[in-house]
Amino acid sequence: MKRNQIIGLALFLFTVLVAVPLFIQASGRWDFYYTLTSVALLSIASAGVWLTFYIGRINIGQGAYALAGGYFAAIMVTKAGLSFWLALPLAGLFTAAVSVLIGLPILRLRGVYFAMVTLVLTEVARLTALALPVTNGAKGITSIPLPSGIASLSNVKLGFYYVAVALMIIVFAAMYRLVNSRVGHLCRSLQQNEELASSIGVNITYLRIIAYSISSFFGGIAGAMFVAISQSIYPSSFQVADSVNFMLNCFLGGLGFVFGPMLGTLVLYFGWDLLFQTGKYQLLVYSSLLILLMLVLPNGLLSIRLSSILGGRK
Hints:
Layout: H1 3-27, H2 31-54, H3 62-78, H4 84-106, H5 111-119, H6 121-131, H7 156-179, H8 182-192, H9 194-199, H10 204-230, H11 240-253, H12 260-274, H13 282-296, H14 307-310
Helix pairs in contact: 2-7, 2-10, 2-11, 2-12, 3-4, 3-6, 3-10, 4-10, 8-10, 11-12
């Protein structure tokens, strides 16, 4: 890493791990912990969508994997008696395995057809959760116990905040390492010219499956963490709108930057709340601003001369 990237990383870690908790403690706004925890988890799910973009595919189905991961963790904890900390990675592995089964046929499709197929995945996951007895139908799964270790804390919200931030740091560090590895460079070749990449011996199907399974893994662990926080899950916990928002986070932050989903999630989450003051025009103003930003900044917010600090694609 370059010197300015190390400085940027150090400032980021100091902000999220020290400055933010001190500010919340001083202000007494404990609800900010839940807000920022949600932002961290949403950015993890969005990171998976960004990785799918990285191989030249538009993923509008991440909500399905967040829902599947959440249900898997809930079932393992409440019915199998498994510790949540063990159920969390297993939820990610479960969604990754499901994505491989789904991805094998649809990842062969051209980009626009792949996007249309993923668009229905979240609704399929919701209907499946409604139909299966193990998911308890529309009643969902409730009264999920808090994870051991966090339940004993005097400030549960602070505990979840640190866990979510730690997960986010690990996920984006792994993403940065992957993108700047040999596999990452091969994945980039897919979005430029798949036929050319195939002609020089690149195993396109293999790379697509790897990227898509990692993407779904991120969605699964994000969904599982949301279940632990809310202590419940329903078929409507993640909907098509959530899948679309995961995609918008990537566009707004910048598809050319590893940390684009993180910034995009932060801006969209707080931007939506700020626009609440516009009343019935909230959705109109929100969508208009998004379109304007994408026209003015087609490469996202991180294209504003921040690539050298926050690690754009090389």
